[in-house]
Specification:
- With 150 residues, this protein is mainly alpha-helical.
- The protein has one domain.
- It is built from five helices and two strands.
- A two-stranded antiparallel ribbon has the order 1-2.
- β1 and β2 form a beta hairpin.
- The protein is globular, with a radius of gyration of 15 Å.
- The two termini are 14 Å apart.
């Protein structure tokens, strides 16, 4: 598989082959950065989350369940962030003030560089988990090359 270098980022904790967000043309792995289905979005005109979930035959309910289970396991629930969990947060390079507050609360006594490394390591883990939960055989073929990157 050839990855489009223009659609990849070098993130701490994920390294140089992290996907850009789905709304910007990222691959299936970028579902880790998507927000909770069922809510109006500021950038709804370019959101491809539901399209990608449909391609993978993953229901919004399954997607939510995966993200919320991951959040519980990693103590990522937070009243500071949208949808009550860091698992729904994006990868904005400039950061999201609410995300960063929640991360600082979760990882006190760490500098932001190390906090972001942990954040992106966990987002990578969540990405892999989402793709591993695909059950449809055709969809599994679509995600296999991306799972091989982990």
């Amino acid at each position: 598989m050839n990855l489009d270098r223009g659609k990849l980022r070098d993130l701490p904790g994920w390294e140089e082959i992290a996907p850009i967000p789905i709304c910007m043309g990222g691959d299936y792995r970028a579902l880790t950065f998507c927000c909770k289905p069922g809510y109006s979005l500021t950038f709804v005109f370019k959101c491809k989350r539901d399209e990608k979930l449909n391609e993978l035959d993953l229901s919004p309910e399954e997607f939510i369940s995966i993200k919320e289970e991951f959040s519980k396991e990693n103590n990522w629930d937070s009243e500071f962030v949208c949808f009550g969990s860091l698992s729904y947060c994006c990868m904005r390079q400039g950061g999201c003030s609410r995300r960063d507050i929640a991360l600082r609360e979760r990882y006190p006594n760490m500098d932001l560089e190390n906090i972001m490394k942990i954040y992106f390591q966990k987002k990578r883990e969540l990405s892999k988990r989402i793709l591993e939960c695909i059950k449809n055989d055709e969809a599994k073929k679509k995600v296999k090359p991306f799972l091989d990157l982990f």
